[in-house]
Design goal:
alpha+beta, five-stranded mixed beta sheet, 5 helices, 20 strands
């Protein structure tokens, strides 16, 4: 049986178990798991996610601590935002307590309900404001032309920069999240829904320490903008995560995965100072090749604070299709002073995220899948010294070894690939986590069933590995 065939059977079994557990247990899913349709994996919140109640006014705003991850919610469709976070329109508030030295970033990932009817401009806006209501920065993200429900991320910051007058003081600041769009996000699968829906939010605040005075603010004007040949060779298997905190680690090379329509997969690539990241993704052919879905395959690059760097989308007509990110500059601290993306967001070393989405509409035109997915990653440039942070980032090491955690001495591509395999969750583990979330009672019985099934699967895998090991030994030491 092929790996994809086996994975398809596992996906069917996982879906059936989730349906059985949800139907048999009255215990609600915990805060670290979002409820999704059986055929589309739910967004994976951080295991240690904290609950942050959304406040409708600043006086009730809960405090967000850098380094923690929060789960909250946003009523969507009850109004439209102003575009800068300064006017009413269904906004919710959170609070930050900041010093006068560190830069604070806050990313907000919104997860529309699977099956929600969305318009092109439906999304969220995020601002950081000072105590006087002045916006320090603002960003927005929308679902785009695919209108396919998927996680979207916007971010805002209080940046400490030389010569900048606003938002440089220590004190209380507010994170403002608002719905943007037409207000047509509602239940159902057609256009023009009920206009009253609630989106889950994952909020991740990060603190960046200052650098030594005199650090260059000059953005290099030249860099290698040529597009290198994508990596080739045998693909290594990988299982993309269902959220940022479960992103599968990948290195330079070719990676083989699969995806179903409506699904979003997350991967992370460590990128050092001075390095350039190139990436492309390919989706395989479907069972039918008639028709066409506009903006079916989407690839987005996010930096270590989850801010979007660049994005590319392509249509799909049933035959294999690929999408490649445009060449981008090397990662440099001074890039933050550039006027626009992608350069402006390539300001940190650390894990960069590749997020792949296949539009839900693909299922209607070409079948439910799963579809083969190939990810190609290449790193260019050469590693350079970091800016010399005067302190530790929060969370520790988010911007690489220069911000708090030293990398293993002599760690190379092979070491990273070994860590990648170790970090990738198995299908069995993911299934067990999803089922355990459903509670006890009847769910406990099903856990026992799944436990037995997983044990058998592992024993078979162990037996296969043992046989393979014997074959390798025999090949290395042939009998005379």
């Amino acid at each position: 049986m092929t790996r994809r065939g086996a994975a398809a059977r596992i996906a069917v079994l996982r879906s059936a178990v989730v349906v059985m557990v949800c139907g048999a247990s009255v215990v609600a899913l915990p805060g670290s798991v979002a409820v999704a349709a059986p055929d589309v994996p739910a967004y994976a919140f951080a295991d240690d996610v904290r609950r942050a109640e959304p406040a409708t006014e600043t006086g009730d705003a809960v405090r967000l601590e850098p380094g923690a991850t929060y789960r909250s919610s946003l009523p969507h469709g009850v109004g439209t935002g102003s575009g800068d976070g300064t006017e009413s329109g269904g906004k919710v508030y959170y609070r930050l307590e900041l010093d006068a030295a560190s830069t604070a970033y806050v990313s907000v990932t919104a997860i529309p309900r699977p099956g929600a009817a969305l318009a092109v401009g439906d999304g969220i806006g995020v601002a950081v404001q000072n105590a006087d209501g002045t916006s320090c920065s603002y960003d927005s993200a929308t679902v785009g032309t695919s209108q396919s429900p998927r996680p979207i991320t916007a971010w805002a910051a209080r940046e400490i920069q030389p010569g900048r007058g606003l938002c440089q003081e220590a004190g209380t600041y507010y994170v403002v999240v608002e719905p943007v769009g037409t207000g047509s996000s509602g239940s159902g699968t057609g256009s023009g829904g009920s206009g009253d829906d609630t989106w889950d939010l994952e909020i991740a605040p990060v603190s960046e320490p200052p650098v030594a005075k005199g650090t260059s603010t000059n953005v290099p004007g030249t860099w290698n903008s040529a597009t290198p040949a994508p990596p080739t060779g045998e693909a290594e298997p990988v299982h993309g995560g269902a959220g940022f905190t479960e992103a599968a680690a990948v290195a330079q090379g070719v990676w083989d995965d699969e995806i179903v329509p409506g699904q979003t997969l997350f991967y992370r690539v460590p990128v050092d100072w001075g390095r350039q990241l190139y990436a492309s993704v390919e989706v395989g052919s479907g069972r039918k090749s008639s028709g066409f879905v506009v903006d079916a395959l989407d690839l987005t690059l996010h930096n270590p604070v989850r801010a979007k760097v660049e994005e590319v989308g392509v249509g799909y007509g049933g035959t294999q299709k690929s999408a490649a990110l445009a060449p981008a500059p090397p990662v440099r601290y001074a890039n933050r002073y550039a006027p626009a993306n992608p350069t402006k967001s390539l300001r940190f070393a650390g894990d960069h995220y590749l997020v792949v989405h296949l539009a839900a509409e693909v299922a209607d035109a070409f079948g439910d899948g799963p579809y083969g997915l190939t990810l190609r990653v290449r790193l260019g440039g050469s590693a350079q010294p970091g800016p010399g942070y005067q302190g530790r980032a929060v969370p520790n090491g988010v911007f690489g070894k220069d911000s708090g955690i030293a990398a293993p001495t002599g760690a190379g591509l092979g070491d990273l690939k070994d860590r990648t395999r170790a970090a990738s969750p198995t299908d069995g583990d993911a299934t067990m986590r999803a089922v355990a979330a459903a509670g006890f009672g009847t769910g406990t019985v099903l856990l026992l069933v799944l436990g037995g099934w997983t044990l058998v699967g592992r024993r078979r895998a162990a037996a296969s590995a043992s046989a393979a090991g014997q074959i390798r030994v025999s090949a290395q030491n042939p009998t005379p």
